[in-house]
């Protein structure tokens, strides 16, 4: 683990060779201009996802994981949110430079999104069948009848019992888990290449959570989609994700494949996250936590933004922002002491 | 649903009796002599007063009079004025005129109010938004009798664009200005209610979902945003028809429209209590039925509301 080099900063596309990546976010910067000042929500995020691959984006509330997803989808509320830099390439083409119409065509067909709270994300006054079928009608020019039949098939694919009857029901007539299945069916209707699931199980019971995650994993494998799974729950991602990107204060602080990350985290923040999972063999002991609070995005700490909370902080930490260092073919960490962490026993 | 409508219709019965009793008591409590000035310069002859008193049970206590009145009313008889005219006939003549006026007002209110509200709700803080904000404030601040006389004077007397008063056939086109005057305050309400509702719903999650589905902007707004935003506005418009009819008295007076407002005013000043009660009874029924209609409309528009 000696070959340490800085993550390839100049983009492959700029050098004239296509990267071959399905979806690639590079040095994305987003700020929220609020009455209290400018909040730097995303400060140079890099990640990518390929076909058939699952990337989990992990982070606390306010780490910028959802805003990144909204920016990719083009549903960022502007104002207050503004993209101030970076690229989002889909099939090598920068979406931020596309016209509104071009971007609209990608939504649903190229990249689709599953939202956290299906009850508020579904329109309460239309049947679920209408809401799924309208995509077939508007985007595929299908007749009302055919679109309805396809909508029922979609409900069937996400394993909703009695799909033919339930297609005529309204969102409030479904249970939480079933409603999230409807949401998934709706997002998959146009057969997207990338699916972004923004905390798809947070609003659900634990038992239902597992079912939804299994379903997502299954559909992803069947369709060979790229899946970006946004979550704050380490337990949820362990089974499904191929790679994990950990976000803190609008940056990726660690990226690794699942086994590496769980076996040997290379960033103190990730270590803290893993230690704060309740474990059955430590029953009766106090749960470990990460001290302090996530930083205010209006005033991000100097140097490494994690230093005020970091148990390993050294004098260099408030001075210098650590770049995301590539530690191996599949892993990177933004810590001054990443190498030491990786090489420890 | 059917049972709900039935229950609501049954609820109308106690409300109907309660309101009519209240109105009867109030009219009875107004001081004055119904036969003062009825017989020209002279006082009325005692024989006439005695005859009328007996005919209309004026010596009986008012609760008993109320029972007599209701007894007739339930057979469809509104009674007679002291002059011997059928009150049912007066109502049948006056009501269509007021209803016409109120409908014209409601149409103006809906078209202008909704348009202004939708445009400003979609583009907040622009020039149009501020213009509508100021003009609705203006409309809300001006009482009907001021705007009525002002428009009558400017459009009718000065520029002679309209007839200052409405002719006795009450044609629809002559009701446009009176309808505007009558509905001006509600129109401002509708504009503001629509604006708020649109603005609130345009930030909602399901609108964001509709965008994320890749639907064109006009479908996101025209289908997903409007359907939800217009529910509260439509219910306001529904209940407002009753308010417009009840509030038409000033507008009818200014533009000389022979409607229920004028009839009620005349009846109150001449102590024709049976006429007052008759007019108000019909108005109460309109209110109650419009309310029921609005509740049913609400359930039709919002599937989350179901009446058992």
Automatic annotation (TrEMBL), chain B:
Checking CDD domains in the record gives: TM_PBP2
Q: Which residues cross the membrane?
A: 12-30, 101-119, 131-155, 175-194, 276-301
Q: Which domain of life is it from?
A: Bacteria
Identify its protein family. Belongs to the binding-protein-dependent transport system permease family.
Q: List the membrane topology term(s).
A: Multi-pass membrane protein
Q: Which UniProt keywords apply?
A: Cell membrane, Membrane, Transmembrane, Transmembrane helix, Transport
Alphabetical list of PROSITE patterns matching this protein? ABC_TM1
User: Where, subcellularly, is it found?
Assistant: Cell membrane
Check the record and name the InterPro entries matching this protein.
Answer: BPD_transp_1_N (IPR045621), MetI-like (IPR000515), MetI-like_sf (IPR035906)
What protein name is recorded for this chain? ABC transporter permease
**Chief place of localization:** membrane
Domain ABC transmembrane type-1 residue range list: 95-298
């Amino acid at each position: 683990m000696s070959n340490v080099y800085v993550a390839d900063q100049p983009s492959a596309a700029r050098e004239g060779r296509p990267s071959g990546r399905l979806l690639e976010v590079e040095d994305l910067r987003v700020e929220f201009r609020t009455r209290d000042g400018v909040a730097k929500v995303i400060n140079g995020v890099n990640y990518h996802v390929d076909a058939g691959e699952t990337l989990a984006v992990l982070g606390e509330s306010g780490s910028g994981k959802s805003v990144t997803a909204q920016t990719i989808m083009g549903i960022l509320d502007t104002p207050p949110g503004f993209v101030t830099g970076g690229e989002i390439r889909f099939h090598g083409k920068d979406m931020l430079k596309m016209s509104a119409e071009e971007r609209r065509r990608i939504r649903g067909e190229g990249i689709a999104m599953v939202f956290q709270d299906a009850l508020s994300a579904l329109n309460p006054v239309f049947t679920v069948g209408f809401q799924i079928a309208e995509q077939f009608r508007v985007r595929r020019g299908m007749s009302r009848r055919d679109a309805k039949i396809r909508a029922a098939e979609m409900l069937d694919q996400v394993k909703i019992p009695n799909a033919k009857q339930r297609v005529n029901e309204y969102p409030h007539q479904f249970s939480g888990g079933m409603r999230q299945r409807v949401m998934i069916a709706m997002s998959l209707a146009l057969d997207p290449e990338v699916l972004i699931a923004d905390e798809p199980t947070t609003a659900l019971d634990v038992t239902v959570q597992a079912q939804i995650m299994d379903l997502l994993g299954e559909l992803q494998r069947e369709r060979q989609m790229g899946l970006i799974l946004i979550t704050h729950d380490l337990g949820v991602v362990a089974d499904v994700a191929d790679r994990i990107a950990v976000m803190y204060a609008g940056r990726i602080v660690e990226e690794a494949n699942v086994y590496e990350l769980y076996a040997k985290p290379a960033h103190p923040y990730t270590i803290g996250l893993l230690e704060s999972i309740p474990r059955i063999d430590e029953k009766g002991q106090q749960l470990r936590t990460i001290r302090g609070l996530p930083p205010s995005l209006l005033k991000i700490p100097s140097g490494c933004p994690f230093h005020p909370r970091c148990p390993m902080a050294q004098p260099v930490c408030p001075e210098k922002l650590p770049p995301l260092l590539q530690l191996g073919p599949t892993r990177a960490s933004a810590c001054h002491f990443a190498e030491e962490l990786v090489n420890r026993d | 649903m059917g049972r709900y409508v039935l229950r609501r219709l049954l609820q109308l019965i106690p409300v109907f009796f309660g309101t009519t009793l209240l109105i009867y008591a109030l009219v009875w409590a107004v001081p004055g002599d119904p036969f003062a000035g009825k017989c020209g310069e002279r006082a009325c002859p005692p024989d006439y007063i005695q005859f009328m008193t007996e005919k209309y049970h004026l010596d009986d206590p008012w609760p008993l009079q109320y029972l007599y009145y209701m007894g007739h009313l339930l057979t469809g008889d509104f009674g007679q004025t002291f002059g011997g005219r059928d009150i049912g006939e007066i109502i049948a003549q006056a009501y269509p005129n007021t209803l016409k006026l109120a409908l014209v007002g409601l149409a103006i209110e809906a078209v202008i109010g909704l348009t202004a509200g939708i445009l400003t709700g979609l583009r907040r803080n622009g020039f149009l938004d501020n213009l509508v904000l100021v003009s609705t404030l203006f409309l809300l601040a001006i009482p009907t009798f001021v705007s009525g006389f002002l428009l009558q004077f400017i459009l009718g007397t000065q520029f002679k664009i309209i007839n200052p008063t409405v002719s006795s056939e009450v044609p629809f086109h002559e009701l446009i200005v009176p309808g505007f005057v009558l509905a001006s305050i509600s129109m401002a309400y509708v504009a503001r209610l629509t604006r708020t509702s649109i603005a609130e719903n345009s930030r909602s999650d399901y609108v964001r979902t509709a965008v994320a589905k890749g639907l064109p902007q006009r479908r996101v707004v025209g289908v997903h945003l409007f359907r939800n935003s217009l529910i509260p506005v439509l219910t306001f418009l529904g209940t407002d028809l009753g308010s417009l009819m009840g509030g038409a008295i000033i507008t009818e007076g200014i533009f000389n429209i022979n409607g229920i407002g004028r009839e009620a005013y005349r009846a109150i000043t001449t102590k024709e209590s049976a006429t007052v009660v008759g007019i108000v009874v019909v108005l109460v029924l309109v209110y109650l039925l419009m309310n029921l209609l609005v509740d049913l409309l609400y359930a039709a528009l919002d599937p989350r509301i179901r009446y058992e």
